[in-house]
Amino acid sequence: MSKFSTSFVRVSLVSLIAILAACTGPAPESDGGSRVHDPYENTNRSIHNFNRGVDKALFRPAAKGYVTVVPRPMVNSFNMFAENLSLPGQAVDYLLQGKPKEMGTTLFRFVVNSTVGFAGLADPASDFEIPRADTDFGETLHVWGVAEGPYLELPLYGPSTARDAVGVVVNLFTNPVDFAPTRPINNLGLYAEVVRRLGDRGLYSDTVDSILYGSSDSYAQLRLIYLQNRRFELAGDDEDAYLGLYTDPYADPGSTAVTDPYEDPYAE
Length: 268
What we know:
Number of strands: 2
Organism: Ruegeria alba
Low-confidence stretches: 4-9, 248-268
Keywords: Lipoprotein, Signal
Number of helices: 11
Signal peptide: 1-27
Oligomer: single chain
Strand order of the largest sheet: 1-2
Shape: globular
Pfam family, one: MlaA
Protein name: VacJ family lipoprotein
Strand content: under 5%
Largest sheet: 2 strands, antiparallel
Helix content: 55-70%
């Protein structure tokens, strides 16, 4: 298959998934972000158990060995390399979101770290106070008005939503770096992301272990943490969009009451 045909197939698949994501049902954001939309919970829990098994048998020991053998500065450098490779894709997302300033800043950061920073192994852009990029195609779909959709646990990936699952596929397989006419390795960005996740799993092992293996219901705990963090990221300055994050998790599911995180629970 030619490079053009491969690119056409990728774009076609992405377009199809995006259309399907737009039809994922009611948006939890419509009630202040307080609702958990998880119609596939039984399937999700099965995938979660599979992911936990893979983590316990393979990824966790590999990550611990990686950060034990490889010095911390080198682990950080590999993480920065992966982050740098993601910048062209994030620049495209900013463009699609109608944010040309952020797009330009992201491209400038990529150029600085790719040259002065030895292909991204160092981060001189931060020393020059060039802002970090932090976006993805899931956020682009959010800006376009695509609903969050149901909660999903993706095999070998982890927590997501229907909308963010589309973003994962798009960001992994449509990074402009992977379409460069000359590149040392095909899908270099994908491999670098795997190494970055390996490093993060090793560096934050205690925190991850407490969630996956120290909680009575690791699935519900991980789902809550993911949805709270993701909705907060996408809320921006919209206070009403993230007030729902503090809804009492033990309240009646049909209730929309919001708990003030600063309220004295013992006050009259």
